[in-house]
Structures are given as C-alpha cells and as structure tokens.
Amino acid sequence: MIEHDVQIRVRYSETDQMSYVYYGNYASYFEVARVEAFRHIGFSYKEMEDAGIMMPVLEYKTKYIKPAKYDDLLTIRVRIKQKPGVRITFDYEVYNEEKVLLTIAETTLVFINSSTGKPILPPQEFMSYFEKFYAS
Amino acid sequence: MIEHDVQIRVRYSETDQMSYVYYGNYASYFEVARVEAFRHIGFSYKEMEDAGIMMPVLEYKTKYIKPAKYDDLLTIRVRIKQKPGVRITFDYEVYNEEKVLLTIAETTLVFINSSTGKPILPPQEFMSYFEKFYAS
Amino acid sequence: MIEHDVQIRVRYSETDQMSYVYYGNYASYFEVARVEAFRHIGFSYKEMEDAGIMMPVLEYKTKYIKPAKYDDLLTIRVRIKQKPGVRITFDYEVYNEEKVLLTIAETTLVFINSSTGKPILPPQEFMSYFEKFYAS
Amino acid sequence: MIEHDVQIRVRYSETDQMSYVYYGNYASYFEVARVEAFRHIGFSYKEMEDAGIMMPVLEYKTKYIKPAKYDDLLTIRVRIKQKPGVRITFDYEVYNEEKVLLTIAETTLVFINSSTGKPILPPQEFMSYFEKFYAS
Questions:
Q1: What is the DSSP string of C105-121?
Q2: Whole-angstrom Cα distance, residue B44 to residue C71?
Q3: Is D123 in the C-facing interface, judged by CB distances under 8 Å?
C-alpha cells in the first residue's frame, strides 16, 4: 500500500460564514494530496498530462466529521490501497494539528488518452512502480 | 417527494485546464440548488441561519458521468425523498441543455443550534410543510 | 457607451468567516457581467474562444466600499466606455437590492490569437457593433 | 521596509481552460502572502481576529504580465513599504521558478473593531514592531 502525508494550511478564502472550511473546498486539498503522492513516488502529474494522459475524477465521496477552521495546519493522509489499472482509487484522511480526524474521503479517477478521449492504462513506468508494492 | 429545478450557467472561473468544470465546483452548484429548493417552498436558508440554525454538510457523494463545460446552461434537479428530521438528505442530477445527464450526487446535512452546537429538529413551520407531503 | 446589468445571487461558498463575500470572489462576478454584456449585444465569448480568440485579463482594479453578504441579490452594472481595439476596458459597479453601491472595479483585457499567442484586433462583426455606438 | 517571500504551488483547481491561473485566484495567493508575512514578524492574523480585530480589503489592484501555470512553484514577494496606521498597504510580486515576474499587485486593508465595525489602530505590539523599522 502506498501512503503519503501532505500538509496544507487553511486559507481565509476557503472559509465560509459558519467559520468552517466550505465543504466544497476539500476537493482541492485532495487533489493536492494525490498530486504530491505522485511526486513523492517519482511521477509528475503535470508531465503525464503534457504527455497526453489526463485524469478526470469519476467518483468522489466524503464524510465531514468535524470542521476544519481558518489557519489550521491540516495533514492530508492519502493512500492507494489497490494496484491501479485504467482506474485508480485514493483514500484520504484529514487531521488537524491535535491529530483529530476531521474528514475522510475517497476518489476514483480514470486515465484518459487526451487525443482519443478513451480510457487507457497508466504509463508503464508508473505501473512498474506499483508492481513492486502489490506483487503477489 | 419534493423536487425542484434550478438553472446555473457555468462560469469561466469554474473551468480547469482540462476544459471541464473542476470536480470540486459542483459542491457550490448543489448548495445553490438546495437553497433555491428551500426558497421555492417558502423557506429562506439565510433567515434560518439568522435565527440561529445552521446546516453543515455531513456527507457528500457524487458521480461524474460526463463533464460540464464552459458556458453550459445546466439544470440542477434536486429532490428531498424522505421526510427530514435532525438530518436532511438531498439528491441531485445535473443536466446540460441537450438533457444529457452529467452528474449525480447526494448530500446529507444536519440542523445545528448555532449557540449550543448541538443537532436539533428543523423549525416547526418547516416540518409542517413536509408533513403535507410525507403524511402516512 | 454600452451598459448592461446582470443579477447574481451570492452563494454560501463565496462568503468568508467575516460573513463578507471574499474579496477575491468579485472577479468571477465581473467575468459573468462582461460575458453577459457580450451575449446581450449578440456575441458569445465561448464561440469567440472556440474560433481561436482568447481574452486574458491584463489589469484589474477594485475598491470595496461596503461588503456584499450571503444571499444578496447583486446587480452588476458593466460599461464599455471606449471603443475597443486590441484591448478592451470594462467598468463595473456592484449594487445590492437596496441600491447601495458596494464595489467599483475596472478590468482591461486583450484579444489574443490562441495559435500565435499574439494580440489581435477583435472580430470584424464585433468591431462593427461598436462603430455604431462610438462613431463620430 | 518589511519584505517576505512565500512559496505557493499552483493547484489544478486554480487553473482555467486557457491553462492559466484564473485571474481571480491570485487574491488568495496575496492573502496567504500577507498572513505569512505577519506570522514571520511574530503576529498571527488568526489571533488578532480572535481578539476582535478584522481586516477587510479596501482596495486591490493587479497587473498580469505573464500567466502562471499549473504546478508552477510561485514565489510571492510581499512588502510593507509604509508604516501602518488604521490602514495598511501591501505590495506583491509573483515570480515563477525561472525568476520571471508574472504579476504585480497592491492591496490596502483597514483594521476594524469587530464589535463596533469602526476603524481602529492596530494592536500596540504590532505598531511597536513597525516603529523599529520606520523610525525617523
């Protein structure tokens, strides 16, 4: 299993008038977390996209347990629990500085050939990386 | 069952470099849809909040079937399928002008007393409205 | 002079924990206002972009006089005071329902050929429209 | 003069379909920069707000010289050139990793007593800090 932690400080722009992080703003935290997890294992999402593969989100689920607040230094823990194929699923947990679990979430994305618009397998070097971890 | 349609035109700010509506931006469309559904049946979310009840989101799930694009005039169809209690669940469907279904989603919110931070039942006049629809 | 009014209702996502519309969110209101002003005079920004002309913003200035609040039904008044060339300048005023002036702003955009990245004059039919208004 | 640099990596959510950072999204970068400049000199904007002082933006001007792009690691250089009073002005420059200047901006904010809604001078310890720098 691949696991990576990313820290994000809550911006004022991300709060709403309940003084909570607006429920829609977590999506960009999860995007940052999965991109940084990719970078951590040696893959650049930007380069993959420049090379003609894009990764739209197919499914997104989240549970809000406690609110994140302004200026909180959040830890986003992201996990890839299953070997990716045409699809890849990420799990997320959001913690504040007191290690309190605030939010859990899951996203499923698909690898798409930008030219054809068709689903494809991820690049070979990406797959090879995962072979090491999920080999029988 | 309560059902209401709201139209929202996609803003440039809501697109990303895939030329899709960014997956995190649907959350604000669903917020608009549920607030307008409330207004349609005679309730103002703003007034409810001013009166000391707030409604944070507990759970949010969405499936992205096809992308919404810049300048699309979307129809957000929102439904309240079950009589609300301390919690209320909304279902959503997003259609483009060609009546193609782009996205489905569900959110569960909780009524909270702003002073105590505790869950409470919605205001009586709100409940009365629903009694009519979900009566035995 | 071309003048057009657009109504926008403030979304919860656009508020911050001061209970003001976050100062950065007006930019998308102004974007909507200028796109709707274009639509009003018969031009679609989307079609122009599809035809290979894009319009990045060069300059943006705004003064915040009074805060816009959640659920306010704002009127954005947009004006094109000068005949456009390679550049086009829009002026904006934001009013609430009580006709109180909340914000004033100005943006200057440039017409760019998407293929070459170079500034160009706007399409002829666009220019012709303005000839009528600003002719000597 | 007080000067501080902050690094911000561009999120996918912040791009638009021109593949530029949307012009409205710089406002939150500048917010982060000024809050981090405050933290750097020993002041927490959050604590100031908790203590009853808020700082809405009065004026915001920006010039877009070159676009910031997805995944760029931006440096936001923020300067406080004049001793603050009831108002405080910040200047900003945005650079990419190649040290190319992308954007310049200026914001003026006002210190407000949250209870009365009236402008006030900043806290004494804040002012004392600036006395050192701007003393005659």
A1: EEEEEE-EETTT--B-P
A2: 9
A3: no
Domain count along chain D: 1
CATH number at residue C29: 3.10.129.10
Q: What are phi and psi of D128, to 5 degrees?
A: -60, -40
Q: Which domain holds residue D130?
A: 2-134
Q: Is pLDDT at B135 greater than 70 in this prediction?
A: no
Bridge partners (DSSP) of residue D54 are D112
The token duo for A86 is 């045409």
* Any A CB within 8 A of C16 CB: yes
**Residue whose token pair is 């070459």:** C116
d(CA C4, CA C34): 9
Query: What residues of chain D lie within 8 A of the CB of B25, using their CB?
Result: 13
Which chains would you list as touching B if contact means 3+ CB atom pairs under 8 Å? A, C, D
DSSP letter at D3 equals E
A68 touches C: beta carbon within 8 Å: no
Nearest to A88 by CA among A113, A60, A107: A107
Q: ipTM of this model?
A: 0.95
Residue pair A44/D71 in contact (Cβ under 8 Å)? The answer is yes
* Nearest CA among B86, B73, B81 for reference residue B126: B86
Distance CA C5, CA C27 (A): 16
Whether D24 contacts B13, CB under 8 Å: yes
Per-residue pLDDT at B75 exceeds 60: yes
Q: pTM (2 decimals)?
A: 0.96
Cα distance from B63 to chain A (closest Cα, Å)?
Answer: 5
